[in-house]
Design brief:
The structure is a homodimer of 410-residue chains.
Chain A lengths: L1 H5 L4 E9 L10 E9 L2 E5 L3 H5 L5 H17 L2 E5 L2 H4 L8 H13 L3 E5 L16 H18 L6 E6 L13 H9 L1 H15 L4 E6 L4 H12 L6 E7 L6 H13 L5 E7 L25 H20 L3 E6 L24 H13 L3 E5 L5 E7 L1 E7 L2 E7 L6 E4 L1
Parallel strand pairs in A: 1-15, 3-4, 3-10, 4-5, 5-6, 6-7, 7-8, 8-9, 9-10
Antiparallel strand pairs in A: 1-12, 2-11, 2-13, 13-14
Helix pairs in contact in A: 6-7, 6-8, 7-8, 10-11, 11-12
Chain lengths: 410, 410
């Protein structure tokens, strides 16, 4: 009972009226209503799609990669694709547009919502920016946004517009074009410019600010952006927990602080590993590179418990609209960490099964009923897409939080 | 030579033409030009003025307090007076307006520029705000600004509008009315409101944002405020160094970071003690209360060196326009620290003498010259007020960075 109440914001109760082609109520018939998708975005980074969709996977690896993607599709309804400038356009003027379009379309065809990550970031940015003046860098960045946001409109309508701005102007590990222009524009200034440009070329898109910094720094930055009139559609929060699970207390504290803006929150990059913890003294996660970081049975149990707890807290929170796990499989995972839901051989870890149970069973609706004299059957279910089956006929509909009754023509 | 260059922004070279009452040049006369005040604000907290100006000092202490103020007047040209709401208006509706006006006038009559500190702060705020709704607290805060800024216009035209906003909404040592409304408005929101109201009632005033937090938090907050269109006249930086002198490196690093906004910088609350250092593990300086915190000869020498170095760096920095030392004397100093330029018996510490030499000798101009055939004598000097003496006559003028030659009528 208390669990249902905690999820009330994820559900709706609605009268579904069935009529025939002539508009007459379909009376006294058995119906089955089965949820086929969630409104909530259960996402994952899935860069492997690019080679598969573009048929670039070596023959001896194809079955393996296809199996991996099947398991991805069994669980998730959202994907993040990489748009790191330095990789997307390694050579100036030769963007990997076609390849990424093919990947995005592959996902879209399979009912997966796609996010592009990121349009502006100081890491993995184009090295050739370093040969430009700051004015030229800014123009190149604007052109990049115009080109990519336009080229992917309809395929990708959610963007991490700008990434890690808290550290951007003081990032000093190596010189790069984006840090240079962020110093000129200031933090709020560069966010303002990048959001304005992205909005211009895809006004309906969902635009995120994204950061790994969950301290007061990020709060103050968001506060400044909102007061400066920047329209942020969702606050992106990274949660790479290679150094240990935040735990309930920190998770709730972070949610509490970032909820104060009243904006949707996306957990954009979640990592919970099934291996030993990265030492706490490592400041930049990228500095921890080891030859072998094994997934162990003991830690797989821990990961499953943490995944269950964390996803439950996030799904229960009214402002969270998306959770994206960063690495789907240990095969190719960031930093070589055992951060996936699959092991390197594609076998499912307990975390995969736990999450599948949550998404596909506990938080999914499968309802059987009988239409009344008005042809109405009442559905209380989780928000999302449904398939209604009656007398061998199949109709699709969407269960939304708002709106009147739904009328379906069989 | 290099020293002169470092101070070029504090100086001007100008032709001063002397004419007689009929407008004829005063030719070939010896003139003496003596600086009487600085454009730069050398300030100090000097709350003792209130009782002296209001004749409330016990008879047996009056000579002592007068001696203290004489030494203050010998050194400084700016003062900070306290407007802590909980002390200024301990009982609702009974503000200490008259007393503070008398004190501000006492200072103004002695050519001391006065700043009011602060109009909005969560510490030392009026306890009776706690009985109000948040809407009422905000209205009371607005009314307070309207009343005090209006009542002191002309006497006090510089205000620390709002103090320590970085910590304000998360301040949790005790409940208070200002933290409550800062949570409603957000950081940039409360700054925006308080600046707007202060500006409304004294459009020409110099308005400061002030904070002890010199981290990236404060940078991001200022960036947000500026992007939100808040017109901050000067960035206030507190530098209470009870736990040890920042040193050149940190001082220059802080100046560097806060210079990026191109705004004037005021060091609003400077403390360098002549005693042992407060332990580093103390987080809130207010938590360190000891019965006796002696000033020692050894540490007085250290303080003098630190004062000399710090004031020199600040005076050389083109964006710094004011330095205010928080405690003029150990007698009554904040936290009982030996933080003054005077010892408890009014005797001058080496720091007093060092600073006096800087302000009154090294950075002060006293020029003798002879008018030429046009009655002109050239003055290269530090910006500020001057007295010109020629043939027993005395004329006052201001040496400013901009503008044409100065014509004076003897």
């Amino acid at each position: 009972m208390s669990k249902v109440n905690m999820l009330a914001h994820r559900m709706a109760t609605k009268a579904i009226q069935l009529v025939d082609a002539s508009g007459n109520p379909v009376v006294g018939k058995e119906v089955e209503m089965k949820q086929t998708n969630h409104e909530f975005l259960f996402g994952c980074g899935i860069f492997d799609v690019i080679d598969v969709a573009n048929k670039k996977v070596p023959a001896d690896r194809l079955a393996f990669q296809e199996e991996k993607l099947d398991k991805f599709l069994d669980l998730f309804n959202a994907a993040t694709l990489p748009f790191y400038w330095g990789m997307f356009e390694q050579e100036e003027g030769k963007p990997r547009t076609k390849e990424l379009q093919t990947a995005a379309k592959w996902l879209k065809d399979r009912n997966i919502s796609v996010k592009g990550h990121p349009l502006c970031w100081h890491t993995l940015t184009a090295p050739w920016l370093l040969d430009m003046t700051n004015e030229e860098i800014l123009r190149a960045q604007f052109d990049r946004i115009k080109r990519d946001v336009t080229d992917f409109k309809g395929l990708i309508d959610t963007w991490d517009v700008i990434n890690e701005v808290v550290i951007m102007p003081i990032f000093d590990k190596y010189d790069n074009g984006i840090t240079r222009i962020s110093q000129d524009l200031g933090r709020v200034g560069i966010i303002k410019e990048m959001f304005a440009k992205t909005r211009l070329y895809n006004p309906e898109a969902t635009l995120l600010l994204n950061d790994f910094n969950t301290s007061i720094n990020y709060e103050i930055l968001i506060d400044g952006c909102l007061n400066a009139g920047i329209s942020i559609d969702a606050i992106g929060i990274q949660s790479h927990q290679h150094q240990g699970y935040w735990g309930l207390e920190k998770l709730e504290e972070v949610l509490d602080r970032f909820s104060s803006f009243g904006l949707p929150i996306h957990f954009t990059e979640n990592t919970l590993t099934s291996g030993h913890l990265m030492p706490a003294e490592i400041e930049d996660l990228n500095d921890y590179q080891i030859p072998e970081w094994p997934s162990t049975e003991e830690f797989e149990e821990r990961q499953a418990k943490e995944v269950e707890e964390m996803y439950t807290v996030l799904f229960e929170h009214p402002l969270v609209e998306a959770v994206t796990t960063w690495s789907f499989s240990d095969d190719g995972a960031w930093l070589g960490a055992p951060a996936g839901f699959l092991r390197k051989d594609n076998s499912e870890k307990p975390s995969y099964q736990v999450l599948k149970k949550l998404i596909k069973e506990d938080w999914s609706t499968n309802h059987q009923g009988k239409t009344d004299e008005q042809g109405v059957v009442t559905l209380e279910g989780f928000l999302g897409d449904y398939e209604l089956i009656c007398e061998g006929e199949k109709v699709s509909f969407k269960l939304e939080g708002s709106g009147e009754r739904v009328q379906l023509v069989l």
